[in-house]
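Hi V.,

You were right to ask for the full record rather than a summary. Here it is.
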Amino acid sequence: MASLDFEQEKTAFRKYYESNREHFVEAKNAYIRIISSLIKRFDAGEVTKIEGRVKDKEECIKKFHRKYQSKLEADEQPYEIKDFISDLIGIRIVCLYEDQISELSELLQRHFKILDVTDKISAVESTEDSFGYKGLHMDLTLNDEMASLPKYLPYLDCSFEVQIRSLIQDAWSVLDHK
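Predicted structure:
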Protein backbone atom coordinates (compact mmCIF):
# COMPACT_ATOMS: atom_id res chain seq x y z
CA MET A 1 0.00 0.00 0.00
CA ALA A 2 1.33 3.41 -0.98
CA SER A 3 2.78 5.60 1.77
CA LEU A 4 5.05 8.58 2.40
CA ASP A 5 7.58 6.45 4.30
CA PHE A 6 10.63 6.16 2.04
CA GLU A 7 12.23 3.37 4.11
CA GLN A 8 9.02 1.34 3.98
CA GLU A 9 8.65 1.92 0.25
CA LYS A 10 12.29 0.93 -0.41
CA THR A 11 11.71 -2.34 1.44
CA ALA A 12 8.46 -2.95 -0.47
CA PHE A 13 10.16 -2.19 -3.79
CA ARG A 14 13.07 -4.55 -3.04
CA LYS A 15 10.60 -7.37 -2.23
CA TYR A 16 8.60 -6.64 -5.39
CA TYR A 17 11.78 -6.60 -7.49
CA GLU A 18 13.21 -9.83 -6.05
CA SER A 19 9.95 -11.73 -6.37
CA ASN A 20 9.52 -10.62 -10.01
CA ARG A 21 13.11 -10.47 -11.28
CA GLU A 22 12.86 -13.65 -13.37
CA HIS A 23 9.58 -12.44 -14.83
CA PHE A 24 11.26 -9.16 -15.84
CA VAL A 25 14.10 -11.09 -17.52
CA GLU A 26 11.59 -13.24 -19.43
CA ALA A 27 9.68 -10.13 -20.54
CA LYS A 28 12.92 -8.44 -21.67
CA ASN A 29 13.84 -11.51 -23.73
CA ALA A 30 10.35 -11.70 -25.24
CA TYR A 31 10.48 -8.02 -26.23
CA ILE A 32 13.89 -8.44 -27.84
CA ARG A 33 12.52 -11.39 -29.86
CA ILE A 34 9.42 -9.44 -30.93
CA ILE A 35 11.40 -6.35 -31.95
CA SER A 36 14.03 -8.40 -33.80
CA SER A 37 11.29 -10.22 -35.67
CA LEU A 38 9.53 -6.96 -36.61
CA ILE A 39 12.76 -5.42 -37.89
CA LYS A 40 13.46 -8.47 -40.05
CA ARG A 41 9.88 -8.87 -41.28
CA PHE A 42 9.52 -5.22 -42.30
CA ASP A 43 13.11 -4.82 -43.52
CA ALA A 44 13.66 -1.76 -41.31
CA GLY A 45 17.28 -1.25 -42.31
CA GLU A 46 20.55 -2.39 -40.87
CA VAL A 47 20.51 -2.73 -37.11
CA THR A 48 23.89 -3.38 -35.54
CA LYS A 49 22.66 -4.29 -32.08
CA ILE A 50 19.52 -5.08 -30.11
CA GLU A 51 20.19 -5.64 -26.44
CA GLY A 52 18.33 -5.38 -23.20
CA ARG A 53 18.71 -5.23 -19.47
CA VAL A 54 16.70 -5.26 -16.29
CA LYS A 55 17.70 -2.18 -14.28
CA ASP A 56 19.39 -2.90 -10.96
CA LYS A 57 16.99 -2.51 -8.03
CA GLU A 58 19.24 -0.07 -6.17
CA GLU A 59 19.58 2.06 -9.33
CA CYS A 60 15.77 2.16 -9.50
CA ILE A 61 15.58 3.42 -5.92
CA LYS A 62 18.27 6.06 -6.57
CA LYS A 63 16.41 7.25 -9.69
CA PHE A 64 13.14 7.51 -7.78
CA HIS A 65 14.85 9.44 -4.97
CA ARG A 66 16.55 11.80 -7.43
CA LYS A 67 13.56 12.48 -9.71
CA TYR A 68 10.32 12.00 -7.78
CA GLN A 69 10.54 11.62 -3.99
CA SER A 70 10.85 15.29 -2.95
CA LYS A 71 7.90 16.49 -5.03
CA LEU A 72 5.64 13.61 -3.98
CA GLU A 73 6.45 14.10 -0.32
CA ALA A 74 6.09 17.90 -0.56
CA ASP A 75 2.63 17.34 -2.08
CA GLU A 76 1.91 14.71 0.60
CA GLN A 77 1.12 12.24 -2.16
CA PRO A 78 1.62 8.60 -1.11
CA TYR A 79 3.67 6.55 -3.57
CA GLU A 80 4.98 3.15 -4.50
CA ILE A 81 8.41 3.30 -6.11
CA LYS A 82 7.54 0.71 -8.77
CA ASP A 83 4.93 3.06 -10.27
CA PHE A 84 7.62 5.61 -11.18
CA ILE A 85 10.24 3.39 -12.84
CA SER A 86 9.37 3.29 -16.54
CA ASP A 87 12.74 1.86 -17.57
CA LEU A 88 12.89 -1.19 -15.30
CA ILE A 89 13.08 -3.18 -18.52
CA GLY A 90 15.22 -1.46 -21.12
CA ILE A 91 15.86 -2.36 -24.75
CA ARG A 92 18.47 -0.60 -26.88
CA ILE A 93 18.36 -0.66 -30.67
CA VAL A 94 21.46 0.59 -32.46
CA CYS A 95 21.07 1.28 -36.17
CA LEU A 96 23.72 2.18 -38.66
CA TYR A 97 22.43 5.62 -39.64
CA GLU A 98 20.61 8.41 -37.83
CA ASP A 99 17.87 8.61 -40.47
CA GLN A 100 16.81 5.04 -39.60
CA ILE A 101 15.73 6.13 -36.12
CA SER A 102 12.41 7.59 -37.30
CA GLU A 103 11.69 4.50 -39.40
CA LEU A 104 12.33 2.21 -36.43
CA SER A 105 10.23 4.46 -34.21
CA GLU A 106 7.30 4.30 -36.63
CA LEU A 107 7.60 0.51 -36.81
CA LEU A 108 7.45 0.22 -33.02
CA GLN A 109 4.56 2.70 -32.82
CA ARG A 110 2.55 0.52 -35.22
CA HIS A 111 3.09 -2.61 -33.12
CA PHE A 112 3.15 -1.41 -29.51
CA LYS A 113 1.12 0.99 -27.40
CA ILE A 114 3.06 4.20 -26.70
CA LEU A 115 3.10 5.45 -23.13
CA ASP A 116 5.65 8.24 -23.55
CA VAL A 117 8.32 9.50 -25.97
CA THR A 118 11.44 11.50 -25.09
CA ASP A 119 13.33 12.81 -28.10
CA LYS A 120 16.83 13.52 -26.81
CA ILE A 121 18.01 14.12 -30.39
CA SER A 122 15.89 17.23 -30.90
CA ALA A 123 16.51 18.40 -27.33
CA VAL A 124 20.28 18.37 -27.82
CA GLU A 125 20.23 19.72 -31.37
CA SER A 126 18.09 22.69 -30.32
CA THR A 127 20.85 23.95 -28.02
CA GLU A 128 23.91 25.90 -29.14
CA ASP A 129 26.20 23.08 -28.02
CA SER A 130 25.01 20.19 -30.16
CA PHE A 131 27.24 17.67 -28.40
CA GLY A 132 25.82 15.50 -25.67
CA TYR A 133 23.77 12.37 -25.35
CA LYS A 134 21.38 11.80 -28.22
CA GLY A 135 18.78 9.12 -28.74
CA LEU A 136 15.06 8.50 -28.96
CA HIS A 137 13.47 6.98 -25.85
CA MET A 138 10.03 5.40 -26.03
CA ASP A 139 8.08 3.90 -23.13
CA LEU A 140 5.99 1.10 -24.60
CA THR A 141 3.66 -1.70 -23.65
CA LEU A 142 1.83 -4.40 -25.57
CA ASN A 143 -0.85 -3.14 -27.92
CA ASP A 144 -4.36 -4.64 -27.77
CA GLU A 145 -3.66 -7.12 -30.57
CA MET A 146 -0.55 -8.58 -28.92
CA ALA A 147 -2.14 -8.42 -25.48
CA SER A 148 -4.90 -10.71 -26.73
CA LEU A 149 -2.43 -13.45 -27.72
CA PRO A 150 -1.97 -16.15 -25.05
CA LYS A 151 1.82 -16.25 -25.49
CA TYR A 152 2.10 -12.56 -24.48
CA LEU A 153 -0.42 -12.57 -21.61
CA PRO A 154 2.31 -12.98 -18.97
CA TYR A 155 3.85 -9.65 -20.05
CA LEU A 156 0.75 -7.44 -19.86
CA ASP A 157 2.06 -5.87 -16.66
CA CYS A 158 5.55 -5.21 -18.07
CA SER A 159 6.01 -1.91 -19.83
CA PHE A 160 9.49 -1.19 -21.13
CA GLU A 161 11.70 1.56 -22.46
CA VAL A 162 13.28 1.39 -25.90
CA GLN A 163 16.25 3.57 -26.75
CA ILE A 164 16.92 3.92 -30.47
CA ARG A 165 20.31 5.32 -31.45
CA SER A 166 22.59 5.45 -34.43
CA LEU A 167 25.98 3.76 -34.16
CA ILE A 168 27.66 7.17 -33.70
CA GLN A 169 25.15 8.24 -31.03
CA ASP A 170 25.72 4.96 -29.19
CA ALA A 171 29.49 5.43 -29.25
CA TRP A 172 29.08 9.00 -27.98
CA SER A 173 26.79 7.78 -25.18
CA VAL A 174 29.37 5.24 -24.04
CA LEU A 175 32.06 7.93 -23.99
CA ASP A 176 29.76 10.47 -22.35
CA HIS A 177 28.85 8.07 -19.51
CA LYS A 178 32.56 7.46 -18.83
